Structure formats: structure tokens, C-alpha cells
Amino acid sequence: MRSIVLISITRLMMPLLLMVSIFLLLRGHDAPGGGFIGGLMASAAFCLYGLAFGFQRIKSVLHTDPRVVLGVGLLTSLCSGFLAYVIGKPFLTAIWLDEIFSGMINIHVGTPLFFDIGVYLVVVGMVTGIVIAHAED
Amino acid sequence: MLITPLICIPLLGAAVTLIFYKEKNIQQWISSITIAVHLFYAFAIFNMVQVQNILVEYLGGWAAPVGITLVVDKLSALMVIMTSIVMLAVNIYSRLATDAKLESQGYFPVVLALLAGLSGTFVTGDLFNLYVWFEVILMSSFVLLSVKGSREQLEGGIKYVALNLFSSVIFLCAAGLIYGLFGTLNLADLSVKVAENIEDPRVHTFALMLWIAFAIKAAIFPFYSWLPSSYHTPPIAVGAIFAGLLTKVGIYSMIRVFLFVFNPLPDWIYTLLIVISLITMVSGVLGAYVQTDFRRILAFSSVSQVGFMMLGISLRTDWALAATILFIFHHAFVKSGLFITAGICEYAYGTFDIRKLGGVLEKDVFISIIFFMLGLCLVGVPFSSGFLVKILLIKAAIETSSWVSTGVIIMVSFMTLLYTVKIWTEVFWNALPDEEELKAEKIKEREMSSMMYIPAAILLLAGIIIGLNSNYFAEYGREAAKNIYYKSDYINSVLDTSKYKKDYNFLEAK
Description:
The complex is a heterodimer of chains A (137) and B (510). Chain A has helices spanning 4-27, 35-53, 57-62, 66-86, 97-100, 111-136. With 137 residues, chain A is mainly α. Chain A has one domain. The longest helix of chain A has 26 residues, at 111-136. Chain B is mainly alpha-helical and 510 residues long. Chain B is 75% helix and 2% strand. Chain B has 22 helices and two strands. Chain B has helices at residues 5-19, 24-52, 74-96, 100-104, 107-123, 127-146, 151-182, 187-196, 201-218, 226-230, 236-259, 267-290, 294-315, 318-349, 360-363, 365-379, 385-399, 403-429, 435-440, 453-468, 470-485, 488-494, and strands spanning 55-58, 69-72. Chain B has a two-stranded antiparallel sheet. The two termini of chain B are 31 Å apart. The A-B interface holds A 65, 67-68, 70-72, 74-75, 78, 81-82, 84, 89-94 and B 4, 8, 11-12, 14-19, 21, 57-61, 106, 109.
């Protein structure tokens, strides 16, 4: 059953929820927020979309299968950990751009952000995958 | 120094297999290559441990006891190699006896995640991190257990998850309480602080809470009901991993946490544990004898074998612990091998019910020989791997004047022989019961490829190698056990870089 109210609300809420989720993702690490909670927020947005338009259409919004999102996320997180090996530090050691190029770059960005992006993708892939699988049954 | 690849290689493989979720062939190849690389790396680590004794890595550069520490000592190295070999054999088997539904539902990525979880459990040096790896194992094994979604599978799966979640809750509570009391979760640091407060009854309570959490994982006497009801439901490619590796996680954690950190507890606790392990041994063996399903016999046999391992822990001598460590090692190969033989019999002759099987010895000599040899290893005939571990255990029981357990070990070994002979006669030796009846039940025979012998043969070979090199393995097991009882090496290497550097030799005065 399609509800016109739900569809209209979803159109309004979707961008907002996704923006908040990315805000939470970027705010994380040193402040409350991070990849996990951001990913949950984004999956909530996709689930809302699924409720309004049908769960199979989530895949077309994601442009791929949730499993691929999960895999890419896992890969991103692992690679951000491996970067530390390149400069000869233990696995998962944080590398900050503003520490390496101090004076030139003033943004506090580093491998933990990539790790969080990976977690974000893993959570989105996992939750939407589970929701779609349940909707199919 | 480089321990993380043991965890990262399988995770990387899992990520890549997820990306190629549509291509079954690519998934198979990636998973085989990943496990082979993991095995190779595990051997490299094993060689490094021979030289350096204990390897330590601080994740993210946060030194102990603040950050997560990964530690590989002789015990961990042996466990990681065991995991990898069993996984490789099962992987080869799953390529041949494919189950389309299982594979389309993500068998390969989940198995790789399970491998990462198992390796993580065996190399972590942190109590909370151990909990996290337990959860990784629990989640991936639940997916594997219930992926086909039949009624029987869901029943087994729910029992498995319910009991294991209960165990996780207890584990988490204990970890929280320990952190509240000592302010640390690093095992090396914790063992120093526990040793200073070993008389405190709160410490005994925490130790027993952790013991219960691990006992549920390991399927020990009052808590083993999940094992026989879940092991026989999944496909053999999953069942062999479960039988070989999952209960071992509980026993390993008991050694690592219960023996290494909380030692020595009051004597009554160890006496109680001896009684519990004897009950586990006897009840498992009795359960195995009355079953008629090939896999259920093996599942109950796992319970009784876990009892042996637990006995080695409760006797608390170097040699007893060495016996436990080698028992874990030998049993993983033998039991997975037996599960795979059961799978081959089912694949070729259509059923797991030993009453409806028969005459396999005439039809297929190779698989009969493999089963026969694996059975001898399980029972513990001289020159087999089972003989080495049982003789070490009996020696330890006699040395501690624990006559009852000596008797029970010998009795249960004979009863192990009974149910092994039962399978042998019903499945391999006797002729088929009644061909007409079987046709009525539509049991079909299938052609199998001769490649299917390879995984069972690999596992058998591992068992034979242990049996033939008993001296080497006994000595290795003893050194691994000494690392657990004489903690100073471990503690000094882990806390080396921190302000905690002191001389911890005082702990050795037991």
C-alpha cells in the first residue's frame, strides 16, 4: 500500500537524514558521533525509503547490492589500518595530515576518518542487506 | 611484531569475496588462496615463536596496558596453525561437495570472517578484545548454522545462539566487574594484579563467572545441550568446522584466562572441576553409544573428548596442561576428518543413518581405510596421536595421585573404542541391511569424485604426523604449558614498554 503522506515525508526527510548521518560521521572520533552511529542513521533513511517505495528499490538508490557496500567498507577500514605499515608504525596507528604537513594543511584529517567511513559503509551494507532479505521472505 | 596479518588476511578475503558476490568461481578461488596464505603466514609466525618465544604487537601504537595488545606465544601459534589447516581441508571439501543454496547465501565470506574471528581469539592479549572475537565467531557461526532455514536447523541454531548469548552476557558482566575492581583488562597486567589479590573472594567469583562463560562455549557437562542439538543439522562443510574448532575456543580461553590469570584459586574449585570433567567424559561417551546418526555419534563424542581437555586443565601440572594443549590440536584434525568421512558416506550413499548404511568397505576401500585410521587416532591406539595425548593425561593423573580420574580416563577410552567399532561395523563392515527397503525410502547413491578423499587424507596425515613425532610434540606442548604456568616471560614481554616494567619473577613462587 502506498501512502501519499509517507511518500511526501520521505522525500523531505531522506536528504535531511543523510546529511545528518554524514555530519555525525565527520564529527566523530574526538566528539560524540562516528561511523557506526552515522551508518545507522543512513540505514534508517534507506529503510524509510524502502517503507515508502518498496524495499527492492533500495538497491537502485544504493546503485549496487548491499553486499558490495559491505565489502567496500571492510576494505576501506582495513586499508586505513594498513597505511600505518607504510610508514613503519604498528597496524591502525593514526596518521594525521596536519601533523605530517604541519603549517601547510590545517584540517584535522587522517586515517581514523577513513576507518570511520569504512565502518559507515559496513553498517549501511549490513542493515540494508538484512532489511531487504527480510522483506523478500 | 607482525601479528595483525593473521586477522587481516581473512578479513581482506572476506571483503573481496563480498564484492564478487555473484561470481561463485571467483569466490571459491579467493577463499582458497586466502586460507592458503593464512596457513603460510601462520607457519611463519610459528617459526618466529621458536626463536623469540613471545611476539607482541600493540595495535595503533598504544602500549600495554592501555591499548589492545596482540600476543603470540607457543600455545597461540599452535592453535592458529590448527585453525588454518582445518579450514583449508574444509575449503577443499566444500569446493567438491557444493551446496548451491549455501554458497549463494554467502558461505565463503562468512567462513573467512569465522577464520578471522578464530585467529583473533587465539592471538589477543586483552580480555575485552577476547569478548569481541567471541561475538565475531558467534555471529558468523549462527549465519552458517541457520543459512538453509529448515525447521531442524533453526531449532539447533536457536538453542546454540540462546546459550551462547547467555555465555556472552556472563562474560561481559565478569569483564565489567574485573575492570571495575582492577582498572585493567590487559591479560598480562591483570594477572599481576590478580596475583596480588588472589585471596580476595571477589576474584574467585569473577574467575568462576568466566569459567561458566567458557564452559558454555566448550560444551562442558551442565551446559552441553546445545552441542548435540546443533552439530548434526548444518551441511558437512559447516559441521566439520564446528566440530573441529568451535569448542576448542572455549577450552583455549579457559587455559588463557582461567589458568593464566586466575591461578592459583582455592583447591576445592579444582576438585569440583575434576568431578565436572569426569561427568562430561562419561555422559558424552554414553550419549554417543546410543545414537544412530553418524553425525550425532560424533557430536556426543566431541562432548566426551572436551571432558578430557577439561580434566587436563583441572589437574594443574605442566604435563596435564601439555596433554590438554595437544589434545586440542589432535582432536581438531581427527574430529573434522571424521565429519568429512561422514559427509562423504552421505554424499555417496544418501544417508547419515548408520542403520541404513552398510558394506562401504566393499564399495569404497579408500574411505574405509581413512575412517579406520582416523578412528584409531580418536581411540588412541599406540603410535597414533590419540595415544600420545591420553598417555600424557594418564601420566599426569597418576603423578597427582588422582586415581579416580586415571580409572575414568581408561574406562572412557575403552568406551570410545565401543562406539567407533559400532560405526565401523554398521557402516563399513556389515552388508547392507535390506536393499528393497532402502529403495522404498528413495535413498539414492551418487557418484563422487576421487578428489573428495583429499581433505580427509590431509587431516588424517596431520593426525599421523602428531603420532609419529610424539617426542617433539610432547616437548613443544610442555614448553607451551610452562609459558602459561610460569608467567614472567609473557608478562615481561607484554609490559616491556610501559611504566610497569618491574621484575615479575616473584609470581613464579607458587
